[in-house]
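Sequence in, structure out.
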Amino acid sequence: MMLTRRSTLLLPWVLAACGGHEEREFLPLHYNYLEPLRLNVAAVQIEQRFVPSGVAPDVSQLDPFPPVAALRNMAADRLQALGPAGQAVFVILDATLIRLKDTINANFAVELNIYTAPNVRAGYADASVTGTYTGDLDDLPGKLYDITKSLMDRMNVEFEFQVRRSLHGWLLPGGAPTAPVRQQPLNVGPPAGPPP
């Protein structure tokens, strides 16, 4: 069979239509487009208590942007320390992606603790989300990325709700302070003519 120049150019499209996967770009998951949670503390610390096993049935290491990294980004992007004292500690308790045959089970859990002094916890909020996917896993990295992104969208909503409910006394009002308006007298008389 002889291929012409035109059919050679179409060959990649034909192969893609026959079941080949297109290259996807997996962007890091960031949340700085969401309203920040302005905390009346002097510092925010991120603590990771959950460590993925990295062996089956754990598949989080195959995710192009693993849940632990997404949860860290959520804390870094959304929590602002704007107070004179105290510390907030964001704790990653769970960031599980487990594969059992054609099913992925996901569980993400976090906690935000407020400390007024070392070992003196003044309040906390916790949030968790779970999800299950059953179906085609031919593109496992792509499916894991999609699951993580979807659960992180839910986690951002749940986390903010729990922080506002349980730590409302530690939240500062939103919005940047505005500069005071300077007064300037208005010229009410007719404009002065040219100097003599």
